[in-house]
Amino acid sequence: MTKAAQGEADIVIFDLEDAVSEGERPAARDLIRGFLEAQSEDQRGRLWVRVNPLDGSHTADDLAAVLPARPGGIMLPKSRGRHDVEELDRLLTALELESGLPAGSTPVIALVTEVAAAMFTTGNYAGAPRLVAMTWGAEDLADSIGALSNRGSDGQYSFTYELARSLTLLGAAAASVPAIETIDGDFRNLEGLKARAEQVRRDGYRGMLAIHPAQVPVINAAFTPSEEEIAEAREIVALFEANPDLGTIGHKGKMLDRPHLSRARQLLAQVEA
């Protein structure tokens, strides 16, 4: 936990789910709570906790243990749809009031493709309380459907898992929250990580989960707009502002229309944020 917290990640997620065996859950809760309580208020804001899924018996105990220590947010695994986020909201609100925290002050990121049924609900998260981002998972999905592997002979995700990635991206856009790419378990292959991060950013993803500290600088670099991208976006915005009555504008041998303007503004908003 110390090594992760001292790294460059924007958010650090402490895991109470898959990384913890059944008998170690009480001790893990105590460790995370103690670590959070030892941090400054500023540092605590980037320290999140992944609790257990709502279809099990551990979620309420996880939340009761860590929420009084004011984590920056909660990751909900194996979300089956908007109703799971709403149920988590009810649990969090009660605990926030008990702990003297403002109701609604704990944000949530949902893992939305880890069970087969969840693939059909990725588009219903719009307006879900507390939701600030959506991400997906390939390993648990493979387990859910009984697959021997989630990758083809070329080492790339097979169709079902690329579908999960696409549905997460579309669902996040429909919910007006960022889509966050899943982990790359091959933490020694930083060149492959770089290529994948750059590709999903082009597709519309706004961040990526890391499983090893060495991955964080690569991911940060891939998702940071370059000076050339920023300059081009500013140029596009300036062109349309100078020609407010035009729907399309010729620029450097290309035709630019309103979607180009929208993407330029989104990029600049990301930089400003």
TrEMBL record:
Essential cofactor(s): Mg(2+)
SUPFAM superfamilies named among the record's database cross-references: Phosphoenolpyruvate/pyruvate domain
GO molecular function, one term: lyase activity
Keyword Oxidoreductase (UniProt): no
Coiled coil feature spans: none
UniProt keyword list: Lyase, Magnesium, Metal-binding
Source taxon at top rank: Bacteria
Residue ranges annotated for the HpcH/HpaI aldolase/citrate lyase domain, each copy included: 2-213
InterPro entries membership: Aldolase/citrate-lyase_domain, Citrate_lyase_beta/mcl1/mcl2, Pyrv/PenolPyrv_kinase-like_dom, Pyrv_kinase-like_dom_sf
Family listed: Belongs to the HpcH/HpaI aldolase family.
Protein name, as recorded: CoA ester lyase
Lineage per the UniProt record: Bacteria, Pseudomonadati, Pseudomonadota, Alphaproteobacteria, Sphingomonadales
